[in-house]
Amino acid sequence: MNPEIVLPALAAGFEALMEYLSAHVLTCLIPAFFIAGAIAALLQREAVLKYFGKDSPKWLCYSVASTSGTILAVCSCTILPMFAGICRRGAGIGPATAFLFAGPAINLLAVVLTARVLGLELGAARIAAAVSMAIIIGLIMAAIFERGSDEAEGTEEAACTVPASGGGGEDGRPGYIPPLFVGFLVAVLLAATSGIDLWPKAAIVSALVIASAWLLMRYFTEMEKASFLEETWWLTKRIFPLLLVGTFITGIIGYYLPVDLIRRIFGESDFAACLVASVIGALLYMPTLLEVPIVGTMFGYSSGAMAPGPALALLLAGPSMSLPNMIVIWRIIGSKRATVYITLVIILSTLMGMIYGMVAS
């Protein structure tokens, strides 16, 4: 291989990696991993899933389903067993598919990183579009499949039977303590990524960290503390290396990427560009958080090569689906439901991208 060609590409990958590490690890990723660990170890998912029964009020079940991704912090892989579980328990196909899409689409870590790296406007658009899409997908799926012959497939046989969690915690701990602890960690993340001056920011973050540590030491058992740290470390070692490798590779690809070709395909927020972006996103496997450097660097959104519309379409379809994900969904809910669900994700991602493109232009 010609060193004159390879070395600049490697340098571009290294530069992208260093920029990513210096800008986002301390203030963004470290707090986010602690939040995800607390969610996985200290909050009960049953408290959310119990609202997914088909007999629950629509405003309640779709509100929970379309926003649960911010609480559960799942990706397109870990959402699948949870989706299968709530289907077996008798959750309505509408709330279940709303949950299936929204879980990875509004993953807290990914949304914060989107706003931080790609801009607050795109981050806010991603949240609004993902929540809206989840509700629309759920309502359409319910309208098509909750009545008629397809009910025999079995996902609608019974209301959700997940028991409600008690009001208290270990050793009489008030039930609001775990959510409060997670809330303090979220506040650390928001303060650390804000535009406040350095010293006031350091004082606020320090106070929030101390308050979080006090809650952890005062109200949680040794087993819960160990579980919290283990979950945080497990998430970190599972996701962080992928982020490093992925960011480095996207930097290299970005060096070779034909900017003129990208501008011709994704330079406008028209129907064709948004549709192609949605289809690419639906087929690609994007590990958690990696969609941000993929859109920003590989597809050139940060350099202006990619228009806002296709960027949002890719951010909506990409994290929520992939080819392996589609295969599993197909097996869980059957070919008819899976086909309609996948089609809805692609079409709605395209439309949301076009709408955002018109607003942002």
UniProtKB/TrEMBL annotation:
Its main location: membrane. The chain crosses the membrane at residues 20-43, 59-84, 96-115, 127-145, 176-196, 203-220, 240-259, 271-290, 310-333, 340-359. It comes from the Archaea. Keywords: Cell membrane, Membrane, Transmembrane, Transmembrane helix. It is a multi-pass membrane protein. Belongs to the UPF0718 family. This is Permease. It comes from Candidatus Methanocrinis natronophilus. The lineage of its organism: Archaea, Methanobacteriati, Methanobacteriota, Stenosarchaea group, Methanomicrobia.
